[in-house]
Amino acid sequence: AVRSPRSRDIVNVELEKPKRGMLTLSGNVYFPTQHSLAILKAAATGQTRLQADIYDGSEKGTKIYETTTVIGAPLELAANAQLPVIKNSEALDSIQSWPVVVSYYDQSPKKDGLPAYEVSFRMYANGVSRKLKLDYGTFSLNGELSAIEFSKTKPCP
């Protein structure tokens, strides 16, 4: 995907699979990493809701979801002690985190008000997340961080 050099209002996506093609998105559509950064920014400034359109390449590469994100109050740092201990997880003990729920809605003319699915998790200020739950209505999946490794940062040249 490339943002148009002529206009920040357009994103051109070149599809390779399942079939080649082009897709043009409005410039206000977020990619997943941009959405995560927007959630972190909103949480850090005390916002509790974020509305955003998301393009993640799913559904043959043409799907855009409307999302509503609800950000809970910051969790006490002591709440980390209630999670399973894994190697290096103590590095998260001093990092602020928030409970987050993202509801994904289909963009369709026949809206019933229900999300296609919801994702909930604890999001840390460094972008790490734990306590993942994917809820598809008829079934759900839970995920937990099982390993984490922190790389040393290097200054940019």
- CA gyration radius, whole angstroms: 18 Å
Number of helices: 1
SSE succession: EEEEHEEEEEE
Q: Can you summarize the main beta sheet?
A: 7 strands, mixed
Q: What separation lies between the terminal Cα atoms?
A: 26 Å
Query: Shape, please?
Result: globular
In words, what does this structure look like?
By secondary structure, this protein is mostly beta strands. It contains one helix and ten strands. It has one helix at residues 32-44, and strands spanning 2-3, 10-15, 21-26, 29-30, 49-55, 64-71, 97-106, 117-124, 129-135, 140-143. The strands form two sheets. The protein has a seven-stranded mixed beta sheet, with helices on one face.
Short account of what is shown:
The protein is mainly beta and 157 residues long.
Topology:
Blueprint: E1 2-3, E2 10-15, E3 21-26, E4 29-30, H1 32-44, E5 49-55, E6 64-71, E7 97-106, E8 117-124, E9 129-135, E10 140-143
Parallel strand pairs: 4-5
Antiparallel strand pairs: 1-2, 2-3, 5-6, 6-7, 7-8, 8-9, 9-10
